[in-house]
Amino acid sequence: MEWLSTQAPKCEDCKLTTIKGEPWSEARCENCRVDLLEENQDAGKVYIMCRNQVITAGMGEVVDLNLQTVKTVMDLYNIKDQRECMEKVTKTFRHYLSKRRDEQN
Fold first, then answer.
1. In this structure, is the dihedral angle defined by the CA atoms of residues 80, 77, 49 and 17, taken in order, positive or negative?
2. What are the residue boundaries of the structural domains of the chain, listed by start?
């Protein structure tokens, strides 16, 4: 799910595409892109839509994901098992946030 922001910068084809200002194309990324399992498709879609909708504190420190935004997106996409989807989305975000904090320290 974080492929575009975490893996794309490491892929030479993606770097060249970005540097040249060309639009991103899924076809170029067959070497580095990871496909989600079917049971994670909904959570992946919701996460990508919501990952930048965060709650901040103090000097802009990211505290958590805005869960109201997650709920709204799940409603818009008619996600059936919203509890499971919410758990996957928040778990993924908190994992990413933890890795980001580790890299900053």
1. positive
2. 1-35, 37-105
What is the average pLDDT across 67-95?
96
CA dist., res. 99 & res. 77, Å (int): 29
DSSP SS3 for 62: strand
The per-residue DSSP string of 1-42 comes to --IIIIIGGG-HHHHHHHHHTPPP-GGGGTTT--PPPGGGHH
Q: What are phi and psi of 52, to 5 degrees?
A: -100, 5
Taking the model in full, what pTM does it have?
0.71
Residue length, the chain? 105
For residue 15, give both structure tokens.
């770097």
- Residue 59's DSSP bridge partners are none
Residue 8 · residue 14 · CB < 8 Å: yes
User: What average pLDDT does range 59-86 have in this prediction?
Assistant: 95
Count of alpha carbons within 13 Å of 48, Cβ hemisphere only?
A: 13
Distance CA 105, CA 103 (A): 6
